[in-house]
Inverse folding.
């Protein structure tokens, strides 16, 4: 997607998150892996790091492939590995493929490793990461997609109309394989991974930044697991041709074969959105209420701060304004779907293993 103006000031990322089971103890751990490419037209043999003081003084914009990997929980961490463009191989067209050294991402495969020593993390704050080690080898099967439609259509992509684009090609994704983190091996299986995969690209980020998603869903009405369901909520303050649309979210609930969508870019659906997020001493809380002409979706989520991390990105212009971007994979919540025309409750659903994010710019 990094063509035209986005080639010199743009990012494109592929995000994956899932849960693994410890090979010995059987305990769960939630993981994330992301391939993040930035400003390829400014590429050098070595990665250009925007937070390096010399680059900030010179006004040099970042340019690299960053492989981000880590885990959530009380021992949460995020690790970064950077590559210059001489080391990167990318397909310019579908099917997508990004490869550098032992790191690979493509539609059905995810492989790689990141190791950062405590000394390196301390000596290189421009890496924006913790210390630790993680490697992975995973097969990827994206089972339920959410295509946001008009907002990411070919004409608006060509015009670079939005500042930040989103496509959730795997809001339910089955991962199979292994992850090794700090010497501990975890098994990742389709039936217990609660996997997710999406893609974002653009020239900058959004503030506020909201993301909520899960496919670990159980009906309170029937008591049954919803095996063919997933929900996804994302957005915050999108900009169209540099004009902000305040407090707008894109959302979809794929409920046992029926999709309920709440999409402000499809104006004919009459979608209305209200959301809030707040921080308490121990939790981050979200409440999102959306309605279209037919359906109301009311979502409440909480995640313990001790299980979350402050995830780090620098923007393609070299700024770093998201310094309090809470990110987690162990959220819990409740979703109520109601038929707006009749008032009938479609379902009342408990959600676990929720991927969740919230943050606003800091100066």
């Amino acid at each position: 997607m990094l063509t035209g103006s986005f080639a010199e000031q743009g990012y494109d990322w592929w995000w994956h998150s899932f849960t693994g089971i410890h090979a010995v103890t059987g305990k769960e751990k939630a993981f994330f892996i992301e391939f993040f490419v930035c400003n390829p037209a400014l590429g050098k043999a070595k990665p250009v790091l925007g937070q390096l003081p010399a680059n900030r003084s010179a006004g040099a914009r970042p340019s690299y492939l960053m492989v981000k990997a880590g885990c959530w929980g009380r021992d949460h961490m995020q690790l970064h590995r950077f590559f210059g463009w001489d080391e990167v191989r990318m397909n310019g067209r579908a099917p997508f493929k990004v490869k550098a050294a032992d790191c690979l991402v493509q539609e059905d495969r995810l492989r790689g490793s990141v190791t950062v020593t405590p000394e390196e993390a301390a000596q290189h704050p421009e890496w924006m990461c913790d210390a630790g080690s993680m490697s992975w080898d995973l097969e990827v099967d994206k089972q339920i997609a959410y295509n946001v439609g008009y907002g990411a259509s070919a004409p608006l992509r060509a015009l670079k109309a939005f500042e930040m684009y989103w496509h959730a090609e795997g809001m339910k994704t089955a991962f199979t394989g292994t992850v090794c983190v700090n010497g501990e091996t975890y098994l990742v299986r389709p039936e217990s991974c609660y996997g997710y995969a999406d893609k974002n690209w653009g020239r900058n980020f959004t503030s506020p930044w909201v993301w909520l998603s899960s496919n670990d869903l159980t009906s309170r009405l029937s008591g049954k697991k919803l095996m063919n369901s997933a929900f996804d909520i994302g957005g915050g303050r999108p900009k169209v041709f540099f004009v902000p649309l305040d407090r707008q979210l894109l959302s979809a609930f794929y409920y046992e074969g029926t999709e309920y969508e709440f999409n402000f870019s499809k104006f004919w659906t009459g979608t209305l959105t209200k959301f809030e997020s707040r921080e308490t001493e121990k939790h981050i809380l979200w409440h999102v209420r959306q309605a279209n002409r037919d359906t109301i979706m009311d979502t409440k989520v909480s995640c313990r701060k001790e299980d979350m991390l402050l995830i780090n990105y620098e923007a393609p212009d070299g700024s770093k304004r998201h310094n309090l971007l809470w990110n987690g994979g162990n959220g819990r919540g409740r979703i109520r779907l109601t038929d707006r025309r009749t008032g009938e409750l479609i379902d009342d659903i408990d959600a676990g293993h929720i991927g969740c994010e919230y943050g606003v710019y800091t100066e």
Observations:
- DSSP finds three helices and 25 strands in the chain.
- The first strand starts at residue 11 and ends at 22.
